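Journal club side-thread
Mid-discussion, someone asked how the predicted structure for our own chain would compare to the paper's figures. Pasting it here so we can look after the session.
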Amino acid sequence: QVQLVESGGGLVQAGGSLRLSCAASGRTVSNCAMGWFRQAPGKERDFVASISWSGGTTLSADSVKGRFTISKDNAKNILYLQMNSLKPEDTAVYYCAATTGAYRSATMRGDDYAYWGQGTQVTVSS
C-alpha cells in the first residue's frame, strides 16, 4: 500500500549538516502522518521527529530539538529531515516511517507506524 525510500545519508564532520529525503508512494500516501526514527549500532530504535498529515504540527526528540527540522511536501509525496549541528552521537541508520491513512496525527510511538523504509546511514565524525 505504501512504499518508502530514504536518501541523503552520508559521512559528515561534527557540526555539519545533512538533509534526508523520503520518497513515498502508494494509495493515499499523503494522508499519512510521517516520522523519522534512528538506530545506532547495538542500540534500540529511537524516535527522532514526526509530522502530521497536514504538516501543521510536529514532534521531535529532546536530543534533536533546535537542530533537526522535519517537513513534508504533500504534492510531491516527499518527507524531509534537515539535520544541522550534527554530533557524533547522531550516527545511526535513519528510517522513514508512515502511519496508516486513517491516522494523521504526529506520533512518537513506533507501533503507530505501519510502513517503514529501508534506512539510510548517517555517520558523523569528530
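Post-session note: The chain has a mean pLDDT of 93.
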